[in-house]
Specification:
Elements: H1 10-34, H2 38-54, H3 65-84, H4 93-123, H5 126-137, H6 142-149, H7 153-179
Helix pairs in contact: 1-2, 1-3, 1-4, 2-3, 3-4, 4-7, 6-7
């Protein structure tokens, strides 16, 4: 065991938190693509999180944490399938491996897009950034946002549409600039 990655090491804890935070959505979406029930997704996500933490000393620094964590998630799905036995809808191991491989092949692109999106959100005017935060992070309803801002719901929808379009263009430009 590499002592640098033991649980008592503050740097390892910070590294784990940083890596997990950057990849938690990918892990959750991966599980969501494999399981029919939201409750099963939530349960296996929590189990995957705990196992990732417990097994973090086995993670090789500098490799793809998201792929590593999704492999753990994949194993949790297989274990769940074994516990559940035969049910009317069960994905084959080949299918699960295919989804895992597909996710792994796109995880780098996803991470680049997420980083570009984060940079683009930071470039927005404060009131646009706040509107995005209220709608998508706090998940406030359009009606509630409209009431708070004393605007019509149509005005809020139009504003969000323009902001999303602006962010889409910004992300595309950012990624094109990286390839040049």
């Amino acid at each position: 065991m590499n002592s640098r990655w033991t649980m008592g090491n503050r740097e390892a804890t910070e590294e784990f938190v940083s890596l997990f935070a950057a990849n938690q959505r990918t892990i959750f979406l991966y599980l969501n693509s494999l399981l029919p029930s939201g409750q099963e997704v939530d349960d296996l996500f929590q189990e995957t999180c705990m196992i990732c933490w417990r097994e973090f000393d086995r993670f090789t620094p500098g490799t793809n944490f998201g792929a590593w964590a999704c492999t753990i998630a994949h194993n949790q799905v297989r274990a769940l399938r074994t516990r559940q036995g035969r049910q009317w809808l069960v994905f084959s191991d080949e299918f699960l491996q295919s989804v895992a491989k597909e996710l792994d092949s796109h995880s780098e692109v996803y991470c680049e897009r997420m980083a570009a999106l984060s940079d683009c959100v930071e470039k927005l005017p404060d009131h646009h950034r706040e509107l995005i935060r209220k709608r998508y992070m706090s998940e406030e309803s359009i009606d509630r946002i409209a009431d708070r801002l004393q605007r019509s719901t149509d005005a809020i929808y139009r504003m969000l549409s323009r902001i999303r379009s602006s962010l889409h263009d910004c992300v595309d430009q950012t990624l094109r600039a990286k390839t040049v």
